[in-house]
Amino acid sequence: MNSYNENLHSSVVSSLNEQELELQKVKSEQDASMFSLYYAQGDRITTAEKVEIINKKYAFEQKVHEQAISDSDLSTNVLASSENVKAYTAKSVSNTAVAAANVQIAANAILKLTSDAGSIFSIVSAADFGTEIYTQSKNAYDLMNITAYTAEMTSQHSMEASQLIAEVSSNTLADKATSTDAAVKNLLSVTSAQFDATTQELSSENEKLATSNTNEKKAEGALEDISVARNATFQAYQLNNSELNLALNVVVPMSVGDATNYTVSFFPYTSPFTKDENGNIIANDSAPASGYPVQDYYIMLVKDSKSDTFSVNNAEEIVDKGNRRRFYQVSPKTSILPSTTAENHTIIDFSTFEAPIKQKIYTSQLVDTDGDAMNLGDNYVVVVFAVLENSYKKIINTFDDYMTAPSRRFTLENRLNRVSANNIKAIGGDTQKVITVSDNTTTGDLTVDEEEVIAVEKIKFQVLENPNYEVEYHGLFLPDNTNLIKGLLTVEGLVDLEKETKTIEDIADEYDPQIEAKSEEINSLNSEISGLETQVNENNQIINDPSTSATKKKKAETQNEKLNTSITAKKAEVTKLEAELASLEATKEAKIENATNQDHIKPGFFFNLTTAEQIPAGSYTPIDRSDPDTPQTVFNYLINELTVDLQKWNDIDWATVDKGVLVEDLKNIIEDLENLELEKFIDDVIKLLEQTISIVLKEAIKDFSNFINDLKLLHSGYQLYTMEFEIKPETTDNFGNRLIDQNNYVPAIVTVSNNTATINKQFINALSDFQNTATFTYVDPNANATY
Hints:
By secondary structure, the protein is of the alpha+beta class. It has helices spanning 3-127, 132-167, 170-244, 312-321, 390-396, 491-544, 550-596, 609-613, 631-646, 663-675, 678-695, 705-715, 757-760, and strands at residues 249-251, 261-266, 273-275, 281-283, 294-303, 328-332, 345-348, 357-362, 379-388, 402-403, 410-411, 414-415, 424-439, 446-465, 471-479, 621-624, 719-726, 744-753, 763-764, 766-767, 776-777.
């Protein structure tokens, strides 16, 4: 290779290598920013959940505090009343005792007088029986007896009254009122202290929430900035690679169970010269139809660690030795080439060719340039070595062949299967009564209600997986509460950021010129109207001037009629244009709003496989793989998948489809189901789908992607596993917070390789389709009330 070509190749390699290193650096910074945002959002969500709990606690304690104040006021009044009762009761006891003693003295005097009256009556009875004196004495004696009896009864009642009033326990009542008042005052002190502490805690958490919001937005900005930088770096690499390196690219398969191949694409090497139909060299002003000036392309797989030192000389040596397993040959179609190709050899007809060249290469076909088989999990690059035609080399007077710079490094890995959304189910347990305590906004009282809910006890899921893989599953619960999680940057939001900006720019480019033109037209008409109105005013002055002749007045009036007609027409035009302008502005605003207003995507915060893999133990539930399911369970699983896919296929008018060809296939499938013949069932279903699609619509195959992929996996040896994990009181969400009673959560499953580091690097972990997974409301079995 001459010095010019060496320097050029070195510059291209160096430039692309520097950009790839910069791309890796920016990618690392993006990952770091991603984790920073994830934890910032976690802190914000955790704080918001605390504020939610404290708000409920605050509302309840506020009512308790108000009740304690009311009770304290009542106890104060009761204490004062009991003290009054004690004082008045003591006075009553004393007064009643004195009264009883006085009554007793009076009674004794009356009894003595009665005794004396009895003696007198005895004497009168003996001396003057039957006389008037006797009669009067007897009447006096009878009255004295009645009086004595009444005095004795009065004395008895006064003594009983003294006894009863003495039995009144006003002292005990006062003591109990005193102790009760002290207890109520102590309760008020405790509730006041607790309420003050909760108030302070709520204020503190609100401050923390404001701080966490600020930090989260800073983290969002940092991630958005670094993502823009990464996109710019990637675009720069793509541009340089396209212009300087034939747009060489390697694409690895994204489907599960397909880590056996990769696709190399590149544009043909072109020349400023080409050949005409007679074989003469002419200026090249279009893409060649013969592959000129390249005789053959050789695709080579190079270890990433050796990509810096792999040179054209190494490539020439490999080709010269003819070791076909170390390169894949791509040749233009010519008359001297055979119609059939050897192993690792493809012939392209450039007369019908559409760039770029794409070649699918299986790992069994091509080893690396050292002769080693491709290892899963290791980094590789691809180079394309182009052997130029000798005639072209003579024209340019350089006999060097061409080799591209290395492609971007790539790795071939086994993809673990992710759990689909429709295969994750929340399983409920017993019906549980939940007491809800709410504030009656009308009366201000607490209202206690009771409702029955089904408490979710476990999560059940099914997944197809290779039985030879050592796999573990991590069960996660992602908080999904729109009132707590809103306005946060999501993965989709980050991806849509540039699309959104571009859309807004396109909308502005479409509507701004129209709005500006309408505005200028309106301004121009308003200026004309203003000028016409000035002329009308001038004519009015002429008309109203007494010194103006009749002829001039008539002329001015005629002009005003024409001017007013013109003004009316122009004002109508302005009104029409203003309506059109308002419509344009409203349409523009509506389109911008539609472009910027994204629907809520579960769970509403930044979460993807990269962040899910870094969730620490304790924030997920580890789940070991179960035994494979029975054929009957597999059949039920496939039927469920088919049902889900069929729901998407609503646009086909089946009445217009000739189903006669499909009847026999359907009979075979039913027979397979009855006989539980899984292998035959899979083959017959694939056959039915192929025929159905060929009859109905080829594009409809995408509607059955899940079902067809599952059939392929089963056919290749994958097995179905059904697993479940319990939701316990100590279970946490992905941020490590205990699940909150009556809050919504999205179950997610992370599939991870559970082996040595050497083996783990051969696998790409998987995250379930959490965005389309149904949410569930968590019911805490230990909670008896929600405030």
